[in-house]
């Protein structure tokens, strides 16, 4: 069913025709200006404190974080995390140019395939697009180089994220997506899917007992690459 057919069906249900010109102009203006809502003061802090806030919130939600100073350290950080969790050194990785350019050959015991995840994969390594400090949330828009299946199927998800991609509030993350992404078909910025991930999957639906891995990964580990000098902790 086309968009016009869907909208026509909604209008019939509401028993009205198209919006008058003044109301249509008001709605178009609201969509174009992206008005701000209440932004928590806790996210309006200097860059080092924003990154520290992001880490605290991730850990509060049962995730874990490791920081590295250089991209060359990332394969070693992945290997160390897998060993610490007693997991096989094998994973599926996002076919992202930034990840593929890492020196994986320095850790020859690591085995991986760059592709979408399958039900039999136990560990995934995902490319982190952006993150929101106020809640410790990852923004993961779908992309051929960032398959959504990596966020759902593996029991353990590792996300490689640059500190320069951590923002204070949700509005700033959406601003980043609007600014950087243009869909070649529609001209808009929205991908097919945007996942906002705060910690590993969990549920307390049954007798209010918290169960990790209820609808997705049981473990979420973030490797932060310190690429933003302004975000480094004070010496």
Task: Describe the model.
- It comes from Neoroseomonas lacus.
- This is LUD domain-containing protein.
- Pfam families: LUD_dom.
- The chain has 235 residues and is an alpha/beta fold.
- It has six helices and twelve strands.
- The protein has one domain: NagB/RpiA/CoA transferase-like (Rossmann fold, 3-Layer(aba) Sandwich).
- Helix content is 28%, strand content 21%.
- The chain has a six-stranded parallel beta sheet with strand order 1-12-7-4-2-3, sandwiched between helices. A four-stranded mixed beta sheet has the order 8-5-6-9.
Name the descriptors.
21% strand; alpha/beta; six-stranded parallel beta sheet; 235 residues; LUD_dom; single chain; four-stranded mixed beta sheet; FTHF_cligase-like_sf; LUD domain-containing protein; NagB/RpiA_transferase-like; Rossmann fold
Number of E-type strands = 12
CATH superfamily: NagB/RpiA/CoA transferase-like
Instruction: Quickly count the helices.
Output: 6
Helix content: 25-40%
Label the CATH architecture.
3-Layer(aba) Sandwich
Examine the coordinates and then state which fold CATH places here, giving the name of the CATH topology. Rossmann fold
From the alpha-carbon coordinates, what is the Rg to the nearest angstrom? 21 Å
* Oligomeric composition of the shown chains: single chain
**Which structural category do the helix and sheet elements fall into?**
alpha/beta
Query: What is the first-to-last residue Cα distance?
Result: 59 Å
Pfam families: LUD_dom
Organism: Neoroseomonas lacus
Domain LUD: 53-225
Protein name: LUD domain-containing protein
